[in-house]
């Protein structure tokens, strides 16, 4: 694929970190983490701080996957509101889950502050923009529920959302001031740095190809011929999950999230577009999300084609969305185009699996992975260290492959096309 289609605007910190590679052959470790994204690195950092010997194995390079390619929106909460969580999970677990969901953005920004991470960020909130009366009513219901729990949120009128976004076409919206934006590649890289400093070992270009149980340990084999023994294994591969654990890849629907970035905006344009630096996601069936970058570009993303992109035309739907929202940007050049892979579960909740003792897997970020996986990594580390199941905010669930999974992508592609057409009629 041409570099122009795989090169995001995000930047690694200038300081080069030396990643220690592998523990000596034959030396058992406490935990091997497969996948060096936000989930894997957060788990590694907290597990190392708890005194565990931790080995991270990353198939590519740190930041090459969705953790370094996403839109950098740090959004607390889940797809479901508090009252649904309480009804679905019961008063005790539901309340714990609401509290966990409320804390996920704090987990990111507290980590940046406490560890002095070299990560550009703005924490002025996230706007869920409503383009229909139905969406506006849903926003009011969400506002009521979170406001009752003391969250710093606000329902926005049509005039208020127009002033805060500079965009056209919204009837109102909802502002969650707990949220913000970061440079996701810088964040992932800095997570690797502090995890390494805490004692975790991180090996890049080490694709795990086989897992086996032997004499009370897990034997982990990589394509390069490395072998490790571990008391526990955590699969933190999410949308990049393959056949390492039978059935796991069939529990998720991987989707491509495409993004575009303009050239840096002129001061006149920048003053009228997201002047306070919020992130935005809209209420369309095939939503678009956008924010400004640290160097003054507008970055906009949304669902893309299921096949790998082959030309700039594969991003044209995002350019149309940009022009619809901001007609003044119609002539502004698009300088960068890239994409990453995200994972959705049928119930739109993260899933934690432990099919065998000491073998854990986490899948399903649902588009909120920066905060969710940062916070969940700390809980996973506590569970690995002391075995207390109450440390996990979500219940352990069995691996249930989606029926007819092989045909699911065809259905998803058709649904996206249909929803995009419906959205066009609601302009």
TrEMBL record:
Gene3D superfamilies: D-Amino Acid Oxidase, subunit A, domain 2, FAD/NAD(P)-binding domain
Key words of the record: Oxidoreductase
GO CC, alphabetical: cytoplasm
Gene Ontology molecular function terms on file: oxidoreductase activity
InterPro entries: FAD-dep_OxRdtase (IPR006076), FAD/NAD-bd_sf (IPR036188)
Top-level taxonomic group: Bacteria
Domain FAD dependent oxidoreductase: 30-381
One Pfam entry name: DAO
Protein name: FAD dependent oxidoreductase
Organism: Mesorhizobium amorphae CCNWGS0123
């Amino acid at each position: 694929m041409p570099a122009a289609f795989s090169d995001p605007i995000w930047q690694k910190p200038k300081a080069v970190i030396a990643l220690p590679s592998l523990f000596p052959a034959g030396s058992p470790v406490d935990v091997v983490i497969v996948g060096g994204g936000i989930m894997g690195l957060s788990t590694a950092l907290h597990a190392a701080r708890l005194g565990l010997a931790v080995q991270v194995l990353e198939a590519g390079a740190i930041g090459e996957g969705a953790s370094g390619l996403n839109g950098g929106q740090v959004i607390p909460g889940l797809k479901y509101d508090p009252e649904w969580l309480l009804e679905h999970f019961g008063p005790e677990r539901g309340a714990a889950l609401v509290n966990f969901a409320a804390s996920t953005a704090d987990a990111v920004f507290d980590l940046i502050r406490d560890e002095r991470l070299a990560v550009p960020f703005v924490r002025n909130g996230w706007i869920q923009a409503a383009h229909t009366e139905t969406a506006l009513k849903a926003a009011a219901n969400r506002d009521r529920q979170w406001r009752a729990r003391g969250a710093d949120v606000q329902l926005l009128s049509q005039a208020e959302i127009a002033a805060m976004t500079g965009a056209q076409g919204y009837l109102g919206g909802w502002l969650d001031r707990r949220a913000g934006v970061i440079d996701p590649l810088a964040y992932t890289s800095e997570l690797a740095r502090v995890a390494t400093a805490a004692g975790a070992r991180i090996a890049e270009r080490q694709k795990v190809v086989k897992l086996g149980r032997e004499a009370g340990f897990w034997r982990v084999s990589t394509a390069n011929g490395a072998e490790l023994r571990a008391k526990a294994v955590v699969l933190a591969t999410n949308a990049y999950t393959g056949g390492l654990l039978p059935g796991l890849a069939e529990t998720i629907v991987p989707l491509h999230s495409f993004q575009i970035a303009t050239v840096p905006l002129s001061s006149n344009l920048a003053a009228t577009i997201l002047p306070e630096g919020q992130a935005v996601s809209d209420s369309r069936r095939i939503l678009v999300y956008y924010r400004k970058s640290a160097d003054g570009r507008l970055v906009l993303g949304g669902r893309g084609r299921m096949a790998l992109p082959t030309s700039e035309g594969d991003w044209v739907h995002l350019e149309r969305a940009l022009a619809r929202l901001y007609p003044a940007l119609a002539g502004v050049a698009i300088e960068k185009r890239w994409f990453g892979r995200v994972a959705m579960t049928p119930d739109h909740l993260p899933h934690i699996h432990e099919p065998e003792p000491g073998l854990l897997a986490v899948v399903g970020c649902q588009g909120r992975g920066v905060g969710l996986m940062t916070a969940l990594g700390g809980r996973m580390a506590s569970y690995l260290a002391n075995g207390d199941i109450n440390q996990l905010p979500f219940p352990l669930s069995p691996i249930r492959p989606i029926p007819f999974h092989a045909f699911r992508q065809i259905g998803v592609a058709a649904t996206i096309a249909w929803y995009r057409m419906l959205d066009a009629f609601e302009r």
